[in-house]
């Protein structure tokens, strides 16, 4: 049995008709949507949160805590062995590679530190230990002064 050419034309005509209807519906929807568009302020009122709640929600959204102010009289923290190594090796690396950027310099110093044997690292670790001891002594002195200073101020207030 052969398919009649008339049947094929009906299917093709149906597909063409369906395609045309879909296209017209799409175009009519677009025109309706564009005609209905208005500025936001005219059809939807903006929600305004009360000021107190707005401030709280902003702080939570940021997720950052307020930083404590550093005391300028506090002793500086001790350096690690790697930092002593970098301070010593940076000028030498800079002589060898004057065109290095900061990031490249840091990478090179890191590679040199990894390649360094334990005996050579020991020198820098000893420096770090001495610096740590210096920091501990300075911190104890600082705490004693800050407590003593605070106690003296309280006594002066009590006398008045």
Automatic annotation (TrEMBL):
Keywords: DNA-binding, Nucleus. Residues 75-143 form the HMG box domain. PROSITE patterns: HMG_BOX_2 (PS50118). GO terms for molecular function: DNA binding. Residues 52-74 have a biased composition (Basic and acidic residues). Residues 151-160 have a biased composition (Acidic residues). The keyword Disulfide bond does not apply. Residues 75-143 bind DNA. One of its GO terms (cellular component) is nucleus. Residues 33-78, 141-160 are annotated as: Disordered. Residues 35-51 have a biased composition (Basic residues). SMART domains: HMG. PANTHER family: HIGH MOBILITY GROUP PROTEIN DSP1, MITOCHONDRIAL TRANSCRIPTION FACTOR A, ISOFORM B. This is HMG box domain-containing protein.
